[in-house]
Amino acid sequence: MDVLELYRRTGALLEGHFLLRSGMHSPLFLQSAALLQHPLYAEAVGEALGKLFEDEKVDFVIAPAIGGVVLSFVVAKALGARALFAEKDGKGGMLIRKGLTVNPGDRFLAVEDVVTTGESVRKAIRAAEARGGVLVGVGAIVDRSGGRASFGVPFRALLALEVPQYAPEACPLCREEVPLEEV
Ligand SMILES: [Zn+2]
């Protein structure tokens, strides 16, 4: 699957000058929601990502909401697993709402569209572990961590993308006075 082509085709690959949530500047931003709003593309991504973990006997998939709800659903569908999501607890962490089942010892896969630092998927992992789940893998559509993200379990992505990131004071786009967009 040509993931980058899917991002491009759906207008989800933005090129310009972006202020990332991390405070870094980048010439490229992946707006996964623009891709995942198309159910057929979302399902294709879910199947491809699920395939990377088909031997892990996954009971449920979890993702950080809201952006991860669709991804969790399509990957879980591909694996014949349950689709859960974690949401912000208002105290800097995440929790899983009542009604979503985690049985003690359930094997779970955590997924996120784009892993940069892995911070938000880690919060979803902690929420699932707090309910008794056992993490067996982490999946991403795109790994843009440059090989730095590590979770102590297999971490697999459909695409590893090296994207330049600059501290504001060292950003060549700032120097060229390209307008900065917040994402
Ligand atoms: Zn800049």
CATH topology title: Rossmann fold
How far apart are the first and last residues' alpha carbons, in Å?
Answer: 26 Å
Gyration radius over CA: 17 Å
The CATH architecture name reads 3-Layer(aba) Sandwich
Number of strands: 9
Bound molecule kinds, no repeats: zinc ion
> How many domains, in number, for the residues?
1
Largest sheet: 6 strands, mixed
Helix content: 25-40%
Descriptive report:
There is one protein chain. The protein has 183 residues and is of the alpha/beta class. It has one domain: 3-Layer(aba) Sandwich (Rossmann fold). Helices cover 28% and strands 30% of the residues. The protein contains six helices and nine strands, in the order H-E-E-H-H-E-H-E-E-E-H-E-E-H-E. It has a six-stranded mixed β-sheet with strand order 5-4-3-6-7-8, with helices on both faces. Helix 4 links the parallel strand 3 and strand 4. The longest helix has 13 residues. The protein starts with a helix and ends with a strand. It binds zinc ion. Zinc ion binds next to helix 6.
